[in-house]
Amino acid sequence: MSDSATIEQSSQDAGERQPVTKKEITADTPTWCPGCGDFSVLSIYYKLIQKRNIPHESVTTVAGIGCSSRFPYFVQAHGVHYIHGRALSFASGLSISRPDLHVFTFGGDGDAFSIGGNHFVHTARKNVKMTYVVMDNFVYGLTKKQTSPTSPIGFKSKTDNWGALDQPVNPMKLAISAGATFVARTSHTNPKHLLEMMDAAMDHDGFSFIECLSECTEFFAGAFDSSNPRKGGEFKLMPEDHDPTDEAAAYAVAGEDFPGRFGIFYQVQRPTKNALETGVIEAAQSKFKGQQAHDILQANFNKMK
Amino acid sequence: MGQIYFIFSMSETTVSEANNGNDSRASDISEATIRLAGNSQDGIQSIGGFLARLAGRREREVMTMMTIPSTISGGASIFQVRLGSGEVLSPGDKANVLFAFYQHSYDNHVNNLTKGGILVYDSDHVEPCEEWLTKYRHIGIAISSLTVEAIGGTARDKGKNIYALGLIAGMFSLDTTKLERLINERFGGKGESIVKTAMDAFQAGCRYQSGDISNLFRLARGGAERSNQVVMSGNEAIGYGLIAAGVRFGAGYPITPWSDIMELLRRELPKYGGSFIQCEDEIASVSMAIGASYGGHVAVTGSSGPGISLKTEAIGWAVMAEMPLVVIDVQRGGPSTGLPTDVEQSDLNIALYGGHGDSPRVVLAASDVEDCFYTAIEAVNIARKFSVPVFVLSDQAIATRIEAFNEPDLKTICKDVELDLSPVPSHKPYDLSSGDGLSQHRAPGTRIEDGRYPVVTGLEHDESGHPSGDAVNHIAMTKKRRNKLKTLADELPVPEVYGADSGDVLLVGWGSTKGPLLEAVEELSNNGDALSALHIKHINPLPNGLDAIFSRFNSVYVVEMNDGGVYGYGQLAGVLRARFADARIKGINKTAARRWKVSEIIERVKASRAEEPVTA
Asked: Which of A84, A278, B247, B418 is the most buried (most CB within 10 A)?
């Protein structure tokens, strides 16, 4: 696509403009329940936008369906509230066709690992440039307490009165094996760490995935206490000697018992889908330098006479 | 060469008596229908392609039809080409000449020959049947062994198609110099030895000089001077139409018969700075396309049958969120996996109504290959202007058919649409103020100077895109989405009636039935029976003024390739009956997985007329 501007470039011409304020970037009052972990993610997103001085018009927020996916309404910026499970596909089309934007996609565990599981795998594999934050609460909240793909075995929900039976998805393992190039884990209870992860994700050239534990106080209260020092738990960072380019090591850490570790599990550089497609375009266009669309099409039509 | 003489003498003995004394050699004809029947790996389609291209270059109209089996190779495959010097409307009901490469080709297709037609068969594989010998003129040629002899080696079954092309060139006095140039163009990129092999096979075919088959016919040249013509398939025409209209992004998933379009766009779009992405599934495809449309480039997705079913939720979102989108549906036989390589027009309902809730969208149907090109362009323009999903219905009969049509003036048609991110003072994505239902999408990156940015959403929303459960608002927004289509309807041309402007019977069709319908009108009027036809391209919204046309006829028959259903009328007939509450609208339907034949339509109309009392 012909858009060559980048966020960095447009922020230069925004030199005279004041950085966007928290007030300017704040929209509707969130509909989340009091104490919901998603509030913390939202306020860190505001902070990130301010810290990175993203021009107001370039903030682009995409979400699917779920409590957390209400996100775009609470951000005063271009936003999309798409259908359940397909936000990543929508965001991929946007990202590939608009390389000047950094697309943020937000969603929950149902959106990411259940109805949208296929898209998660393929967006990771294709390494489409964007940041995907999954606010993982281990339960379906919007529909009021059904078992989610990350609910632990034994979790009593309305669809498993006797306790969840099925092996939960391990988001870190899934992302690593699918080919994601940035895989990190954080929690709403540690805003400083959350901002650090989002900052690093935005710096990453590729598909950057963050699982953020985000407590549902209504339907799964206390789920993450064991990772919260204020509740007597421990927020365990990645082992100091962890090499994030070591896939096997990342996979091994991902296998630790809950609450597990927090930080960047895995990060490698691999050409993004965006760059690969740009390469295809450049190769194709090199043969048609200076030609307009009708010239190129005419050349094809001449062969069909 | 001894073998050729041997074969020659053999073919002498197989010429049927039916044609003895009826020497049609070098007769001038205005059109001919040739059917080639073989297996799918024989390259039969490429013979058709060469003939079609030659005919295009010779200022003749051409129309072809192709049947491919859904298996990868080894199944039966036919290609029918109708060459004519007038306007060719349909691929022809029956063939004048049948080339049968195998016994099954012979057995299964002999019924498709016209009375006294010519049957050329590969005597290496086909044993003629006594019964048919007297009915059709038989010419046996050892096509397989003669090809091997011509090109050397033992490459069995390779080059047979090009040899047959040479035979056809000889039979119809075709321009061999031009055909040789086309063969050169086709195989030139594959190396000298390939070109030489092809040329040897072709020339051997041309040289096959038996008294029976050389210079049998000469196609008259087209009467009027024609402008330059281009030759392509319906799927190609859709792909190039999208590009001409400025589409620079698309996404899809492979499925027959849509795949050709995605392959073309994947190959061609990068030349124009665009991309076509092959996705993990149909839902991802439509979602990626909508995402790109949101990004400011009107995007395309497409599929056939089952794939369209999968996309419906996302298309409903695009209706609700008012995003431009073009959806190509190359229909095939349904339901479910159905008949993947056969023709049917049974996806009209899903195009119109697929999805939950009230979700008005635009539906257009292309009638022939040329129309595929222009319908694709129109779809893009409508999507852009009205911020709405637009379906383009094609079908298997047009998708793989090759036709010649007047070369479009690309310089005036082609658009290279720049992304518009110019700042606006304020913006409401769902502005209700205009009353015509239209509002404009502003892509991310557009600065909204009052600082109030839009959210596009599938939740019912207020004018700025924020959720609203208010009943009054829901009524207003539902009306807005519907009114867009009413505004569009006012812009649509009233379709033209073919034949008399009023009379007894009006045939109504859509999509690829156009050719057979117009031929039926012509054929019946030649016999003194009045019959008129109306072809509807804009199905949703319908153009204004159809009721006035219907009122001038005693009976209205909607001819469709879909089931007449529980109540005896098909999918378009249902729409028209609902729209006009006119019980005179009746259905003529078929689901035989083949296109309509002109003779069938005429018979069915006659039969139906006989059943009803004549109205005053």
From this structure: B247
Residue from the list B244, B251, B410 with its beta carbon closest to the beta carbon of A93: B251
Q: Is the pLDDT of residue B68 over 60?
A: no
CATH number of the domain to which B590 belongs? 3.40.50.920
The shortest CB-CB distance from B416 to any of A27, A281, A292 is to A292
Rg (CA), chain B: 27
CA-nearest residue to A288 within chain B is B271
Predicted pLDDT at B514: 92
Give me the total of CB pairs closer than 8 Å, taking one residue from chain A and one from chain B.
Answer: 210
Where in the sequence is the domain holding B506, given as residue range(s)?
497-611
Chain B from 385 to 444: CB within 8 A of any A CB:
407-408, 410-411, 413-416, 418-419, 421, 423, 443-444
Task: Give yes or no for a contact between B331 and B341, defined as CB atoms under 8 angstroms apart.
Answer: no
Comparing alpha-carbon positions, the chain B residue that sits nearest to A291 is: B272
- The partner residue sitting opposite B295, judged by closest CB among A28, A97, A300, is A97
* CB of A2 less than 8 A from some CB of B: yes
The answer to whether residues B397 and B365 touch, using CB atoms and an 8 Å cutoff, is: no
- Alpha-carbon span B483 to B466, nearest angstrom: 21
- B294-310 pLDDT, tens digit per residue, is 999 999 999 999 999 99
Q: How far apart are CA A159 and CA B323, in angstroms?
A: 36
Residue B74 has pLDDT above 60, yes or no: no
Residue B27: pLDDT over 80: no
Range in A122-136, B26-40, B206-220 with the lowest mean pLDDT: B206-220
Whether residue B402 is found in the same domain as residue B427: no
Q: What is the mean pLDDT of residues B15-24?
A: 36
Domain count, chain B: 4
> Pairing between strand A78-81 and A60-63?
parallel
Domain-embedded: residue B261: yes
CATH top-level class for A7-270?
A: alpha beta
A101·B294 Cβ contact <8 A = no
Report pTM.
Answer: 0.90
Q: How far apart are CA B169 and CA B177, in angstroms?
A: 10
User: CB distance from B577 to chain A under 8 Å?
Assistant: no
A8 touches chain B (CB under 8 A): no
